[in-house]
Amino acid sequence: MPSPRIALAQIDTRVGDVDANAQAVLDWARTAAQAGADLVVFPEMTLTGYPIEDLALRASFRRGAEAALQRTAAALAADGLGDLAVLVGTVGEKSVTPVHEPGAPEGPRRPTNQAVLLQHGQVQVRYDKHHLPNYGVFDEYRIFAAGDDVCVIDVAGRRVGVVICEDIWQDGGPVSQMDENEVSLLVVLNASPYEEGKGYQRVELAARRAHEVEAPVAYVNLVGAQDDLVFDGGSFVIATDGTVLARAPQFVEHLLVWDLLGDDDAPATGVVAPPLAPDEEVYRALVTGLRGYVTKNGFRSVVFGMSGGIDSALVAAIAADAIGGENVVGVSMPSVYSSEHSKDDAADLAKRIGADYRVQPIAPMVDAFEGELALDGLAAENLQARVRGVILMALSNSEGHLVLAPGNKTELAVGYSTIYGDAVGGFAPIKDIDKSRVWALARWRNNAALDGVFGPDELPPIPESSITKPPSAELRPGQVDQDSLPPYEILDEVLDAYVENAEGRAELLARGFDPAVVDKVLALVDRAEWKRRQYPPGTKVTALAFGRDRRLPITTQWREP
């Protein structure tokens, strides 16, 4: 008997665009058939996009998704692909009140997170996800009804178990029953958002489940970005002993093909894409996140203040890699305090990435405001930032660019940004990257250019002086960030303990941090919550991202003794 060929189609989808998502299923199913596949598996909620959140609660949306599903089944058969088994994720529905008596009224219908087998022009099997995550970025328990059936399908005479994402993260449930069904393979449909280091967790978990069911596990994951979430793909097949048999690259659409040999044979190996180094992985996640947000919101270009500093330089490089340097508008907005080297660095950066570079001095506008308002100190500094925000929003309104806010996670943590000034924008690409990592990513991107990672003969995009000079907002003479903040290497270490690891004051002091530094940093973080809640969304790459995973009360009175 020939060995079934399994294809894992990690594709990019758009929430709510069921017609485009259905067309993608047809296109990739055709590619899988050309590769000789007997089964092609798509990610979780492929037809609807993920996460659909409260769209699932609209009966009209569920009807539209179901109609698209039926059209897809018919189109596959009409295209000569009727024999191909196609597993696709979508939204289903079920009655939440079981009917015990014939003729009894059916209970209210709730949406489900569903995997569907399409073959021979029809829906053959439906499976509803059992375990509905209700932590971090997930809100599925509120939205969906849970399934309770085990799903095993036949593929070329072999038994293949089917589950969805969280079903393998929780002990028990459908996976624990698979060995009773003597499956030769377990396939998992996933829309698992990216977090740094999460790939290793997925592999370790899948290895445990493979050992549990005594069969390989094929794990297909969504790729692309939706709002602030990034999906990194990285689909893989793993053996019962934990050996990775095949793996797709991260952050790109890809069809991973693997042959399911006989149960008594040594498992086949396929192409195994090498894992990315940590800085490259995070950088590519940022590029994917920005590209997805720009394109899925209908923009073609971005605009931001190109100051010559490290944050705007990294954002510029990310933007150029995401949508092309020709679609990046960088605006230098010098004040009377702007240094010549900052203006030179900004111009050099724009030339390196091929951006549309413009210079708009702000002194006349600042003078006009100060002629009407007697401002000094912090109010005068913030005025400069707010004038710059007005300029960027004016260009956005007149030319249709998406404004990017270049602030980093360290600045957001301590409130080191001007509300309605440098915090203005529709998206913040590096809001989940601390300052120390900003420098590391800039170094990585420049080295990648020298190594030809992004193409031959590329110049490092970020001027060296933007990386090495002391960071400054340049809102008063001789200003540097360390005038009002601890050194970044210390600040980021304290913030990592307090924000990422939820350590309190006593634990920080036990680590040996200066009490004055600890008290200052914790007070700054707690007081800045009102600013963070008004900051634009940005790509999430850590387990605890501001705005998504960590929020303080806006007024915080409690302090740990």
UniProtKB/TrEMBL annotation:
Pathway in which this enzyme or protein is active: Cofactor biosynthesis; NAD(+) biosynthesis; NAD(+) from deamido-NAD(+) (L-Gln route): step 1/1
Record bears the keyword Ribonucleoprotein: no
UniProt keyword annotations, A-Z: ATP-binding, Ligase, NAD, Nucleotide-binding
Cited Gene3D superfamilies: Carbon-nitrogen hydrolase, HUPs
GO MF annotations in UniProt: NAD+ synthase (glutamine-hydrolyzing) activity
Pfam families documented for this protein: CN_hydrolase, NAD_synthase
Keyword Nuclease carried by entry: no
Residues the entry annotates as binding deamido-NAD(+): N382, E411, K531
Domain CN hydrolase: 4-262
Binding annotation for L-glutamine: Y135, S192, K198
Segments passing through the bilayer: none
InterPro entries: C-N_Hydrolase, C-N_Hydrolase_sf, Gln-dep_NAD_synthase, NAD/GMP_synthase, NAD_synthase, Nitrilase/CN_hydratase_CS, Rossmann-like_a/b/a_fold
Entry binding sites for ATP: G305, M306, S307, G308, G309, I310, D311, S312
E.C. no: 6.3.5.1
Catalytic activity: deamido-NAD(+) + L-glutamine + ATP + H2O = L-glutamate + AMP + diphosphate + NAD(+) + H(+)
Catalytic residues (positions): E44 (proton acceptor), E44 (proton acceptor), K129 (for glutaminase activity), C165 (nucleophile)
Function: Catalyzes the ATP-dependent amidation of deamido-NAD to form NAD. Uses L-glutamine as a nitrogen source.
Family, per entry: In the C-terminal section; belongs to the NAD synthetase family.
NCBIfam families with a match to the protein in the record: nadE, PRK13981.1
Protein name: Glutamine-dependent NAD(+) synthetase
Organism: Cellulomonas humilata
